[in-house]
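[step 3/7] inverse_fold.run input=structure_tokens len=163
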């Protein structure tokens, strides 16, 4: 059994780190806290286009509707440190997964890679869609998908920690 003081370190990754991955970070932190999981959570983007920026205002507004508050600042994925600093690196879609996989230095790095869709328990989708060019319903869809996958990730971690 894992030592309860050991924190699982999780990094969520999307393209710009202003919509999906900061929403995943925000939602998963809340769900993990509710389940009393000992985790460290962060998010990053495969691009540095928005480095230092807040989460997109539309995503912040949508998250607030659901009772969440996004506070993270965008940062790029840093392969030289993120593979060492995180136990799980979770991509929002296939393209970001491939981008991160290509940066993996070895098999140990590759074993840390997951797709958010791997944790769906009630939703059926192949990826977390980028809501950047959509209207409010696109942001709501992302939140609904992330809530479901966050619960699935909690279940995964509880199962893993029980062994």
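[step 3/7] decode complete -> sequence:
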């Amino acid at each position: 059994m894992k030592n309860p003081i050991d924190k699982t370190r999780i990094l969520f990754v999307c393209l710009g780190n202003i919509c999906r991955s900061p929403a995943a970070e925000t939602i998963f932190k809340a769900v993990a806290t509710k389940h009393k999981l000992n985790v460290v959570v962060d998010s990053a983007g495969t691009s540095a286009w928005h480095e230092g920026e807040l989460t997109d205002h539309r995503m912040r507004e949508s998250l607030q509707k659901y009772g969440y508050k996004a506070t993270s600042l965008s940062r790029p994925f840093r392969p030289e440190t993120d593979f060492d600093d995180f136990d799980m690196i979770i991509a929002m879609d296939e393209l970001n997964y491939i981008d991160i996989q290509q940066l993996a230095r070895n098999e140990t790095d590759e074993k840390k890679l997951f797709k958010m869709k791997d944790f769906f328990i009630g939703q059926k989708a192949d990826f977390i869609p980028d809501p950047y060019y959509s209207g409010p319903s696109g942001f709501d869809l992302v939140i609904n998908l992330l809530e479901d996958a966050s619960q699935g990730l909690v279940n995964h971690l509880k199962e893993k920690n029980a062994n």
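[step 4/7] annotate
The beta strands are 8-14, 39-45, 88-91, 113-115.
Residues 8-162 form a domain with the Rossmann fold fold (CATH 3.40.50.2300).
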